[in-house]
Amino acid sequence: MKKLFQLVLVSLLLLSACAKAPEPIPLIVAPVVDEPVVEAPLPEDETPTLQAVSWPEVAGWQTDNPSLALGAFLKSCTALRWRPQWQPSCQEAAAMKQASETEVRSFFERSFVPHQVSQSNGSSDGLLTGYYVPDLKGSRTASSDYQYPLYQRPNDLLVIDLSDVYPDLGNYRLRGRVEENRVVPYWDRSAIDSDNQPLAGQELLWVADPVELFFLHIQGSGRILLDSGDRVMVNYADQNGHPYRSIGKYLINQGAMTRDQMSMQNIRAWVRNNPDEVGNVLNQNPSYVFFRELDGDVQSPPGALGVPLTPGRSLAVDRRYIPLGAPVFVETTWPNSDQTLQRLMMARDTGGAIKGRIRGDSFRGMGDQAGEQAGRMKQSAKFWVLLPRTM
Questions:
Q1: Beta strand spans in the chain (E)
Q2: N or C: which terminus of the chain carries fewer CB neighbours within 10 A?
């Protein structure tokens, strides 16, 4: 067994050397419940990612009611309270449940130092999108009505954490499978969904619509209304190791729609109107997500921090630049509007498409209404990360 493990590790290292640089840990709403929060060092660029500023420099700080975000921060503290630098602020917040807006604002100003997030070229502008928990119709058994499987984490998926061997690669994992005594990349989307069905027998549930299933992969969590009348929540369990590729970008490049027309709703409409192209378009994204069924009546799924997401107050970020659990003040606008949106959110999640210093994905909630909001959100944004004064 030890020799097999060494063979797997060496093969994966050779695989990574022959291929392009390994992708960051692929996390599409990916829970890391049992792992410590990763706070990566600042990259060596001319402009640091985080630059401390004074509170008056946080545009819109006085317009939001921070007491509405206090409950979200306390939920984050269920994971952060084990980290010494967060303990004082978490303990103080726990005693403020009946505090006024003024008292809560004073708490954040007293306990945290705001840091504006900058691009490597010094720009403070980034991108904010939205995500949600969709509802799908499904079954525990395959039938003519439910032909498309949600797969559980496959038994043959190998995940190698390189941090023990190469600490500098602590944010990276390699995924693969063994084939004839050698390690090869795991199946991509086109192979998994092919007629060969390499994952047959590892289905978790079956759903009615392949397009809605694809968007479930993008969102990372969903509610499945079973034909039995029961409703279950499914959540990210793992990923096949292939990088996320945007089918929206592909459609733009193909001239199917313009950048201004791009939205989740318009992508859905296009694939409905072009059924012969569905397979080809969906396969442009080789990334594939595996799911787990959550126990009990789950009101909101967990994010990468391991605590339930709070609609309107949870943010998916790139954890290479923004530490999970940190409060983040966001200045942006509402979709299709000049109306300003300035709100304190919590960095509780990550995403395969969420890459970059000023790149966020706002959790909008569950169901169709949340999906309407999330699908149209693609706004310019500025971020300020609040770090404890003890850090």
A1: 50-52, 112-117, 126-133, 135-139, 148-151, 158-161, 173-179, 182-185, 203-207, 221-226, 231-239, 289-293, 314-316, 327-333, 340-349, 359-366, 378-388
A2: N
